[in-house]
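Q: What does the assembled structure look like for these inputs?
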Amino acid sequence: MSNSGPDRLYLDDLHVGQRFRSASQRIGEDEIKAFAAQFDPQPFHLDEAAARETLFKGLAASGWHTAAVTMRLNVETGLPLAGGLVGAGGEISWPAPTRPGDSLHVESEVVELIPSRSKPDRGIAVVMMRTINQRDEVVQILKAKLMVSRRPIGRH
Amino acid sequence: MSNSGPDRLYLDDLHVGQRFRSASQRIGEDEIKAFAAQFDPQPFHLDEAAARETLFKGLAASGWHTAAVTMRLNVETGLPLAGGLVGAGGEISWPAPTRPGDSLHVESEVVELIPSRSKPDRGIAVVMMRTINQRDEVVQILKAKLMVSRRPIGRH
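A:
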């Protein structure tokens, strides 16, 4: 929960090609249905029998549920950025659905670093985040633009 | 919840420039904190006092919470597509944060229609979705690629 501390990374500590890997988290059928009931109440996310008749061919998590779990993994174990993880936006896709019982982890790679011209205390890190299940299938690709603090002068 | 019915739209029923507007939904402080505790446990989403010291200058919803509420609004009152709302991916940005007590609605516009070459029963609709608060500020822009069914032969 703390966004400061000696092991937190500033923009100046990042380099293109740097990689991070989060811990894993299992997504249960009850969680898939609870998220869907609250935010994406469609048959293929709520009901196994109904889902079999759809293009998902079985119960699948909402893509936004996969995105939310990806965020939790990155906040807690994935990307130890000073100031926390603040996204300005990005490109997202879901090449495969998350299924009940899947264990997901996130593999991230810094692809671009853009210091701000107008605000010398910050910049943008573009990070490619792949959310991967226990069968090594990529269930989400997120190319995220993160706002990252520069290292304060005098702090090492 | 039903994804069929006479008033549901197939790809063939959509045209570029077509607009849709969802109902509004209020987002309370408790909901913001509950979502954050589960999926985005960072101080600026969890604690008003801590949030004032961050670049958010006060409690703000996780962008993924705004995305999830946007999905619910579109599923229930925004986009009445046959087969439901199935996203392949898209581009997302959060120009302003969602604040406690904000009422959000979604304004969507069809910007491109791409029938599948390999699968004659479906296609992609590219839809620009703007999530807007009660002060007419845009809190999220999502350019979504949705998989949409073609009208079955013989069904009118």
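The mean pLDDT of chain B is 93.
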